[in-house]
Amino acid sequence: MRAKIIAVTNQKGGCGKTNIAVNLAGTMVRRGHKVKLIDADPQGTATIWVNNADPDSPIQIEVNGLGRVAGSVTKEIKKYVDDYDVIIVDCPPAADSPVPQSMMLVSDLALIPIIPNPGDLWAAQDILELASRCSESNDALNVRLVASIVRANLALTKAALEQMASMREGMPLMKARINQRAAYAEAMISGDSVHILGSSAKAAIEEFENLTNDVSLVLGLKKGRK
Ligand SMILES: Nc1ncnc2c1ncn2[C@@H]1O[C@H](COP(=O)(O)OP(=O)(O)OP(=O)(O)O)[C@@H](O)[C@H]1O
Ligand SMILES: [Mg+2]
Question: InterPro entries from the xrefs (predicted)?
Answer without folding.
Answer: CobQ/CobB/MinD/ParA_Nub-bd_dom (IPR002586), DNA_Partitioning_ATPase (IPR050678), P-loop_NTPase (IPR027417)
